[in-house]
Amino acid sequence: MQRVPKVTSVFERRRVQETSGNVVWDAVYAQDYALTQELLKNTANVSSINMQNGIWGNTCAHVVAQQNNRKMLSLLLLHKVNVNAININGTTPLHFAVERGHVPMVKYLLENGALPTKRNYTFKSPLELAKMLPNGNMVW
């Protein structure tokens, strides 16, 4: 049985598990750093950080890129999160960070191996998306 922080009730934990079947993904989505950290102490949960979830097939890395949550990404990187994972559209976490203008997240993903030339299924790379931004201030 995995340990969870005392602040998380059995009811809350069960609700999270029933939401997606991936309790780590749900903790990341909820931006609950303490719970995510606690869950990842159990090695059985570590593999779930790279599992696709939801109708779009986003991984934990996609979620933190969308949320611009560098602290959570740092935690996931310790557990070998795939920063080049693709969802059902071929979109990577870097695509999301670029589209949302999260410059610090873009830089952090690049520093940790994200590929700026990896194309999604509409044949756009994060680098091409950055060039298309209206404000044009995406700095690589």
What is the compact description of this entry?
With 140 residues, the chain is an all-alpha fold. Helix content is 49%, strand content 0%.
Structure characterization notes:
Keywords: ANK repeat, Repeat. ANK repeats lie at residues 89-121. Pfam families: Ank_2. The chain has 140 residues and is mostly helical. The protein has a single domain, classed as Alpha Horseshoe (Serine Threonine Protein Phosphatase 5, Tetratricopeptide repeat). It contains nine helices and no strands. The chain has helices spanning 10-20, 23-29, 33-39, 43-46, 60-67, 70-78, 93-99, 103-111, 126-132. Helix 2 runs antiparallel to helix 3 (33-39), helix 2 (23-29) runs parallel beside helix 5 and helix 5 runs parallel beside helix 7 (93-99). The longest helix is centred in the first third of the chain and has 11 residues, at 10-20. It is globular and about 40 Å long. The N and C termini lie far apart (44 Å). Residues 1-7 and 14-18 have low confidence and may be disordered.
What proportion of the residues is helical, as a percent range?
40-55%
Helix-strand sequence: HHHHHHHHH
Radius of gyration: 16 Å
- Supply the CATH architecture: Alpha Horseshoe
Task: Please give the number of β-strands.
Answer: 0
CATH fold topology? Serine Threonine Protein Phosphatase 5, Tetratricopeptide repeat
CATH class: Mainly Alpha
Beta-strand residue fraction: under 5%
Instruction: Work out the count of structural domains.
Output: 1
| Shape verdict | globular
Classification by helices and strands: mainly alpha
N-C termini distance: 44 Å
The biggest beta sheet reads: none
- The total count of helices amounts to 9
Unreliable runs: 1-7, 14-18
Roughly what is the average pLDDT, rounded to an integer?
Answer: 86
The CATH superfamily title? Ankyrin repeat-containing domain
InterPro entries: Ank_Repeat/CDKN_Inhibitor, Ankyrin_rpt, Ankyrin_rpt-contain_sf
ANK repeats: 89-121
Keywords: ANK repeat, Repeat
Pfam families: Ank_2
